[in-house]
Design a protein that fits this description.
Length: about 300
């Protein structure tokens, strides 16, 4: 039987300057993608045409689009619409973001100038860039917050995302976090579990995280926990078909408690287990702040 040719994939890498686009494109290059850095957006349709005419010889392509091509950047929306209307290849927009504070720190460490900033005012350029990219971020199929990610962790996230064999699956990233450390900026849905009984006030449980069986069982044993999980799963079971209908390929669910160590970790572990049993979704669980007090 003749093997069915896999649909070509075009990944557009964009986002805030200093958020990790170089690492992203290097990661995709390691996966065998044909990569082009700083491509003017007006050339995206022409590139898509070349991919379709290659008869499968060019199957996976990554293009980096950013503010270095200032005069071309305004054409991006039109090019993306043209791509959607006139080409059959599968396309995704990967948007990389980070908090203003971290972006400023990265610019100071690298001693590079922001492309939109005066000589020594990177924050002003960051504010302008964030405003310019607001609409594009809303169109992204995946947003990754690199604020607390090391380069190796970002590479791992990207490899995990783009090595999925079955692209019909909806990819779920469940992130536990502590509200006192800030909300994950790449989350599509945020759920606050600070109303649940807190293991922090049980001396024997305090040093451990929600991955520890004793802490997990403590969080799960309360009636309000079970009622919350029933309602949450009911909501997710409603949302999943809607997201799939919209064309989403990835959803980030944030579960937050005060410090991100006990309750949010236990609930995230539960969701990862339950949703991971489905044959139509793939799930990754990440505990952003569970060991922050140790660090």
């Amino acid at each position: 039987m003749e093997e069915r040719m896999e649909q070509a994939l075009l990944v557009i890498i964009t986002g805030m300057s200093g958020a990790g686009k170089t690492i992203a494109v290097q990661s995709l290059e390691d996966l065998g993608f044909f990569c082009v850095d700083n491509l003017p957006p007006v050339l995206i349709p022409k590139f898509a045409e070349l991919i379709q005419q290659s008869n499968g010889k060019i199957g996976r392509v990554a293009l980096v689009i950013d503010l270095r091509g200032r005069e071309f950047f305004k054409a991006l929306s039109q090019s993306l619409q043209d791509l959607k209307d006139n080409y059959t290849l599968r396309s995704e927009i990967l948007f990389l973001d980070a908090t203003d504070l971290v972006l400023v720190q990265r610019y100071k460490e690298s001693r590079r100038r922001h492309p939109l900033a005066p000589a020594d005012a990177p924050l002003e350029g960051i504010h302008q860039e964030r405003k310019m990219l607001e609409e594009l971020k809303g169109q992204a199929t995946q947003v990754i917050d690199t604020t607390s990610l090391k380069p190796a962790q970002l590479k791992e996230r990207i490899i995990a995302r783009f090595t999925h064999v079955d692209h019909t699956k909806l990819s779920f990233n469940v992130i536990s976090f502590g509200f006192k450390y800030g909300i994950p900026i790449d989350a599509d849905l945020i759920f606050d579990v600070r109303f649940l009984p807190n293991p922090h006030y049980v001396e024997a449980l305090r040093p451990n995280t929600g991955q520890d069986p004793d802490v997990y069982d403590y969080v799960m044993k309360w009636p309000e926990t079970q009622e919350f999980l029933t309602k949450l799963l009911d909501l997710l079971n409603f949302l999943i078909p809607q997201y799939r209908k919209e064309g989403k390929s990835q959803v980030v669910v944030g579960i937050g408690c005060t410090g991100g160590k006990h309750r949010s970790v236990a609930v995230a572990e539960y969701l990862g287990r339950v949703i991971g049993e489905s044959e139509t979704e793939s799930v990754r669980v990440n505990h952003r702040d569970s060991d922050r007090d140790r660090r």
